[in-house]
Each structure stands twice: as structure tokens, then as C-alpha cells.
Write a structure and sequence with these properties.
The chain is mainly beta. The protein folds into two domains: about 100 residues, Roll (Chitinase A, domain 3), CATH 3.10.50.40; about 55 residues, Thrombin, subunit H (Beta Barrel), CATH 2.40.10. Helix content is about 10%, strand content about 35%. It has two helices and eleven strands; from the N terminus they run βββαββββββββα. Strands 1, 2, 3, 4 and 11 form a five-stranded antiparallel β-sheet that branches. A hairpin with a 5-residue loop joins strand 8 and strand 9. The longest helix is centred in the last third of the chain and has 13 residues. It starts with 5 loop residues before the first strand and ends in a 29-residue tail after the last helix.
Length: about 200
């Protein structure tokens, strides 16, 4: 029996616990006009997120929490380290247009693997980067509704696979034509694509 891929679009508010208080803060929104979109069974979203919404119908509401262990894992201090500043030079000049505090940058390891890092600090001779996912260590609380859930067309499936492999938007599935975000394509949500 063939695997059925669905086109799923959801509008949601994402809340996480505030570090200083025991209250939740709204950190991301995707509205119905610009929903978060993905194709099921392509491993392009968090499995726990897909499981929660894949059997819902258009118009159904949802309210669920994904514990950090099932989201982006615990925050790991060892994933923060300094990189020599000259690594970020272009034609002998430091790339200050892309390398600044808070920016997420694409990097490539010696083995060719691509990943993303957050710039924590630019020092005199080094740049402190963080390889943790921006939502590492956080429980993700999603409240929203399903905008669409139907069988995906072959063109939609092919288009999604091409976008994921091109790494043009980090995922290609955030629903924004002008997206220039640089985040891991395996986000699911909670990566900051939406406002």
C-alpha cells in the first residue's frame, strides 16, 4: 500500500515558558493568510507536531504541548564555542553584514554536512557561535487550527522535496514567498519563520 502524503496548512500561536517567570510568552504566530505549510511523511517537521495535526480536518482546533525532549532537546553548553574570526572573512575582510549578534548563519562542516548556528558574540579575534536549536530546552505550546488538510498533489510533493534539498529557505515550507530565513529544514515549527 502506497504512503499517502497530505498537504497540511495550520495557523497557530506558539508559546514558551518565560525564563524569569512561570508564565508563557507568545514567541511566534502564523495566521490563516500565511499559514505554516508542510507535506506529511516527508520528515520535514517535528514528528511530534505532525502526529498531533495529521488526522485533524480543515477547521479543527488544536491545543497541545510538545516537551523539549520531543522537540529540539535540552540546551547543551558544549554546543557553544569560539571560532577564529578569520573563518568569516570574504576577500580578506570580516563579513560584518552577516556575522552579528543574534543572526542565524549557515555553516558547513569538514564532512560537507550543513547546519546552522546562532552568533552569540563577536570578539576581537573570535566569534562565539551556538549550535543549539533556537528553541532547545523549551517545551513548545501550540494553539491554533487547521487551515487545510488534503491529499498532496505530485507537484506539491516534488516542489517540497526540491525546496528542502535546495536549502534556499532552510525548509521551503514556511508559507512565505519572500522568506530568507536561515534555519534547519527539520524544524517542524517554532523556528521563527512566522511572526
Amino acid at each position: 500500500m502506497a504512503v499517502k502524503n497530505n498537504y497540511i496548512a495550520v495557523a497557530y500561536n506558539l508559546y514558551v515558558k518565560d525564563e524569569d517567570e512561570d508564565q508563557e510568552a507568545l514567541v511566534e504566530q502564523c495566521d490563516a493568510e500565511h499559514p505554516f505549510q508542510f507535506i506529511s511523511k516527508l520528515e520535514s517537521v517535528l514528528p511530534a507536531f505532525e502526529t498531533q495535526v495529521e488526522n485533524l480536518q480543515k477547521g479543527d482546533k488544536f491545543d497541545f504541548v510538545i516537551p523539549c525532549a520531543d522537540a529540539y532537546g535540552e540546551f547543551k553548553d558544549e554546543l557553544m564555542f569560539d571560532v577564529p574570526k578569520n573563518v568569516f572573512e570574504i576577500d580578506g575582510r570580516f563579513d560584518k553584514e552577516r556575522i552579528f549578534e543574534g543572526n542565524v548563519i549557515p555553516l558547513q562542516g569538514e564532512d560537507g554536512e550543513r547546519f546552522h548556528a546562532t552568533v552569540i558574540e563577536v570578539k576581537a579575534d573570535a566569534v562565539t557561535i551556538d549550535l543549539n536549536h533556537p528553541r532547545a530546552g523549551e517545551d513548545l505550546h501550540f494553539v491554533g487550527h487547521v487551515v487545510e488538510n488534503r491529499e498532496a498533489t505530485n507537484d506539491e510533493i516534488t516542489g517540497m522535496i526540491n525546496m528542502m534539498s535546495a536549502d534556499d529557505c532552510g525548509c521551503g515550507c514556511c508559507g512565505h514567498d519572500d522568506c530568507d530565513c536561515d534555519h534547519d529544514h527539520h524544524h517542524g515549527c517554532g523556528c521563527g519563520h512566522c511572526h
